């Protein structure tokens, strides 16, 4: 039933004409409770490039937007529920689950996703949320690491991220994280592939414009993981990056690569101030 | 037998292209980005050019440019200017240069170069995400560029 309704919406969307242009002025209120910040002043480090940062939610159709306003309609929450089960599941040689160390995620995980990727002193590296989860799995649980952006990893990321919804993205870009952040910035402005397009070509110079049937957003990642109607599953940040670079007829980087970790930190920092929305719904 | 015939035909086309056409690295652009000679040595076919312009797996020009004459093709993009009447205010030489490598006319433009095979950063093998082969082909062949230019020349102010 629910699936049929979604298919019908997708069909209507495909039929609507392009040329709507720009971001809309709707307001995103989650579960009639939390009002999300979906547009706000650009962080200082971005002020020479743009004045306002805008969530990808504003570039989607009303029907797609609606699905994200209610946890019972948001298909991404089903996957977050699988993550919740894994949170309590004992795995590995140490007989531990995530809950053994972190207790109730609704308390211990509040605000965590808003600050990732983040510098880790002990490991002397910038870590994404998935890298941190895998470190817990291998060193504390004695369990196998999850493959980057695999279903298990994304479900857990969605579950953890859901506890930060409505809180402002706030990743640190100075101090020891700065070198990685600068690497990510380089990648963002590099024109890859035979089409010679950078992230900035589409998401900084052309957001609001249609490219064929696609309404270009700022390519923000405050909404990740995203449930996409197109492939009916949750999608990770690195998989999205990979798809976008592939579309420039380029040799892509791999999910989990140092390049994508750096790019994730940089792109996330472009959204500093927007509310965390993950898991969000996109087309 | 059959295979030999195909190979023979292939080397014939390659030979012909070398004899009369201009390879991507050898195209000569004027200071304003114009290209004066036909890249294939042949005239373009506007009907084929129209298809290449609209076809997703070929030029896919329509993903960035709207054209009123292409009303039968869905979803025209907005990244580049509307091209209605472009054949009236641009010469064939200018258009050939723009389609072959728009960066020679518009510095830093987001418009891709369709007749270029070197100087890329991490070029891929089409849309596979894998590394490009050593003998990377241009996105459009010399004749396809000529066809697209012929189509653009049909876009006259009414």
UniProtKB/TrEMBL annotation, chain B:
InterPro entries: Cyt_c-like_dom, Cyt_c-like_dom_sf, Thiosulf_SoxX. The keyword Signal applies. Keywords: Heme, Iron, Metal-binding, Signal. The keyword Nucleotide-binding does not apply. Coiled coil: none annotated. Transmembrane segments: none annotated. One of its GO terms (molecular function) is metal ion binding. It comes from the Bacteria. Residues 44-156 form the Cytochrome c domain. Residues 1-19 form the signal peptide. This is Sulfur oxidation c-type cytochrome SoxX. It comes from Pseudoponticoccus marisrubri.
């Amino acid at each position: 039933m629910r699936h049929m309704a979604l298919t019908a919406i997708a069909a209507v969307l495909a039929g609507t004409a392009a040329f709507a242009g720009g971001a809309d002025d709707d307001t995103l209120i989650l579960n009639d409770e939390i009002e999300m910040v979906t547009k706000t002043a650009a962080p200082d480090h971005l002020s020479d490039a743009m004045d306002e940062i805008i969530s990808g939610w504003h570039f989607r159709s009303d029907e797609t937007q609606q699905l994200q306003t209610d946890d019972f309609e948001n298909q991404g929450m089903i996957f977050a529920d699988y993550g919740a089960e894994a949170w309590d599941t004992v795995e590995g040689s140490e007989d531990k689950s995530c809950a053994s160390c972190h207790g109730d995620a609704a308390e211990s995980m509040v605000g965590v996703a808003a600050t990732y990727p983040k510098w880790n002193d002990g490991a002397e590296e910038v870590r994404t949320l998935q890298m941190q989860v895998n470190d817990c799995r291998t060193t504390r649980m004695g369990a196998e690491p999850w493959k980057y952006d695999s279903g298990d990893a994304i479900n857990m990321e969605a579950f953890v991220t859901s506890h930060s919804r409505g809180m402002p993205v706030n990743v640190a870009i100075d101090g020891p994280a700065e070198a990685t952040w600068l690497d990510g910035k380089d990648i963002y402005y590099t024109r890859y592939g035979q089409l010679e397009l950078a992230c900035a070509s589409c998401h900084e110079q052309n957001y609001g414009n249609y490219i064929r049937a696609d309404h270009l957003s700022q390519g923000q990642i405050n909404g990740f993981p995203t449930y996409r109607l197109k492939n009916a599953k949750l999608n990770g940040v690195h998989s999205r990056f990979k798809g976008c670079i592939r579309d420039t007829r380029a040799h892509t980087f791999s999910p989990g690569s140092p390049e994508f970790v750096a790019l994730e930190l940089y792109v996330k920092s472009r959204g500093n101030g927007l509310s965390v929305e993950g898991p969000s719904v996109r087309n | 037998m059959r295979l030999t015939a195909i190979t023979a035909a292939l080397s014939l086309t390659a030979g012909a292209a070398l004899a009369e056409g201009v390879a991507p690295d050898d195209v000569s652009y004027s200071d304003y980005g114009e290209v004066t000679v036909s890249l294939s040595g042949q005239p373009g076919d506007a009907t084929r050019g129209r298809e290449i312009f609209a076809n997703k797996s070929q030029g896919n020009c329509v993903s960035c440019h709207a054209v009123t004459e292409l009303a039968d093709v869905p979803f025209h993009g907005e990244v580049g200017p509307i091209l209605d009447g472009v054949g009236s205010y641009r010469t064939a030489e200018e258009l050939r240069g723009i389609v072959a490598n728009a960066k020679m006319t518009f510095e830093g433009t987001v418009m891709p170069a369709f007749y270029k095979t070197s100087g890329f950063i991490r070029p891929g093998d089409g849309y596979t995400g894998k590394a490009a082969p050593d003998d990377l082909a241009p996105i459009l062949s010399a004749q396809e560029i000529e066809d697209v230019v012929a189509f653009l020349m049909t876009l006259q102010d009414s």
